[in-house]
Amino acid sequence: MSSILKVDTIQTTAGAAPNLNDMGFSRANEIIAAYYATSSSSAQTNNTNSHANITGLSITMTPKLATSKILVQGIIAGETYGSHADRGLRLGVYGGASGTTFLYDSQYELYMSNDATQRIGKSTIAYIESASSTSARTYNISFCSTTTNGNAIARVNNYGEPSQMLVYEIGQ
């Protein structure tokens, strides 16, 4: 024997439309969505005044819930070299509707302050923000040099590639 229950409207005791929490379906601390990007495209710069997006490390996503947190993570195959001793790699996160709003700057990765040796390694970056809406947005990971000098080169994906990017929507 089976039964079917059909209703036109469900309301809370206060008369409002229920949300997931009201019905016992909390999404708190759950990964609602995960996105992945990878890049093996090599690029270099000796400019500290403008970040360049790392080709391939761009993710467009639309949050399911305006109350979610968005976590952007990256593992970047980086390098710094040259005869200028005061140099390193800076990583950044851009976001917003078109991915052009600067959100975070790591300042110093693979930094060398006292000699001119080459540094190669994987650098990590993480940024978290509130979704605040269910509007689509794009996140990009960028890089630049810590010093504008022809002998202070910052490079990505020349050694140890690929670089990787993850974006998570986490329910609250």
Question: What can you tell me about this protein's structure?
Answer:
With 172 residues, the chain is mostly beta strands. The protein has a single domain (31-170), classed as Sandwich (Jelly Rolls), CATH 2.60.120. It has no helices and eleven strands. The protein has strands spanning 31-39, 43-45, 52-61, 69-81, 87-95, 101-105, 109-112, 119-130, 137-145, 153-156, 163-170. Strands 1, 2, 4, 8, 10 and 11 form a six-stranded antiparallel beta sheet that branches. Strands 3, 5, 6, 7 and 9 form a five-stranded antiparallel beta sheet that branches. The two termini are 40 Å apart.
Fraction in beta strands: over 45%
Silhouette: elongated
Order of helices and strands: EEEEEEEEEEE
CATH class: Mainly Beta
CATH topology: the name is Jelly Rolls
What's the alpha carbon Rg, rounded to whole Å? 22 Å
**Helical/strand content category:** mainly beta
Total individual domains = 1
Q: Major β-sheet, in short?
A: 6 strands, antiparallel
Question: What low-confidence regions span 5 or more consecutive residues with pLDDT below 50?
Answer: none
Separation of termini? 40 Å
State the helix count: 0
Tally of strands: 11
What helical percentage do the residues reach? under 10%
Round the mean pLDDT to the nearest integer and report it.
90
Please tell me the CATH architecture by its name. Sandwich
